[in-house]
Amino acid sequence: MVVLIGADVHKNSHTFVAVDAAGKQIGQITVRATHSGHEKAYRWARKSFIEQDRRWGLEDCRHLTSLLERDLLAHGEPVVRVPAKLMARQRATARTRGKSDPIDALAVARAMAREEDLPAAFTDEQAREIKLVLDRREDLVAERTRVINRLRWHLHELDPEVDPAPRALTHRPAQERVREVIEAGAGIVAEIAGMNLTDLERLCSLIGELDARLRAMVRKQEPVLLEIPGCAELSAAKIIAETAGIERFATESKFAMFAGCAPIPVWSGKTEGRVRLNRGGNRQLNCAIHRIAITQTRLEGPGKEYYERLRAKGKTVMEALRCLKNQIARRI
């Protein structure tokens, strides 16, 4: 007998509901979202279902479940990730009305019983390290953009004829020219502009250090990704971070669906073969693959040839680009 344990996770607490293969609830517990709370849930499951095979299901929101996943996997427990859309459908068909932590945990468990081919949780510490560094870099880039916008407004007030391009301000020559303009000015506006410029120089330096670190990490972990035309280190880092272990995907088509690159069939009768854009999947991963596809359409090689063949057959620019993205996802 297999016992399915669904979890509804929050920042401070986790609620677990166990069901049998038919979906009947046979147990429930709520614990704190800490190492000791996770250990308590594991001991409860081991004591309550000692003679049954256990399988844990967690809603796929890894900012809340990553610690729980690692603790359960450390005990050798099988864990799968349940997409949130499956929970919503299960709640809609349930006889229990309303919404609560036990209801949501029960929905996760019953979704596990209904869907046998859910992705297994996979702990990839190297991918996690890359994601942490990449997230830090993206935070700094966003802050740099805000600093540049503020600096350009102050420069406009100091001298309307000084209008450097935003991208140019990320480079040292443009920063030095701006500093000359600021030092020639006077007053509080020039003083604040100088502070913004100092912040900009600091952020550019930090971002450069993280770029170098990411390049080294990608070359060490997955150099094969760099062999894909149009895939540079930062795109490869995004792919590694968002994939979180390519081994957890049974087939290339499942990875393409996860990345939002596989088309969705929308045909019936005479419209056989018609598909539509997939707006689901991991949009961060989809964006990285999109950048690679755009680059391949500009470079001589198989990608551009494939794209041009599709265009010659009558497909629109976006249709041909989506087909190319699907091929790139399958190669990854």
UniProtKB/TrEMBL annotation:
Transposase IS110-like N-terminal domain: residues covered: 5-158
InterPro entries for the chain: Transp_IS110-like_N (IPR002525), Transpos_IS110 (IPR047650), Transposase_20 (IPR003346)
Source domain of life: Bacteria
Pfam families, per database record: DEDD_Tnp_IS110 (PF01548), Transposase_20 (PF02371)
Residue ranges occupied by any Transposase IS116/IS110/IS902 C-terminal domain in the UniProt entry: 224-308
UniProt record, GO biological process: DNA transposition
Gene Ontology MF terms in the entry: DNA binding; transposase activity
NCBIfam families in the record: transpos_IS110
Name of the protein in question: Insertion element IS116 uncharacterized 44.8 kDa protein
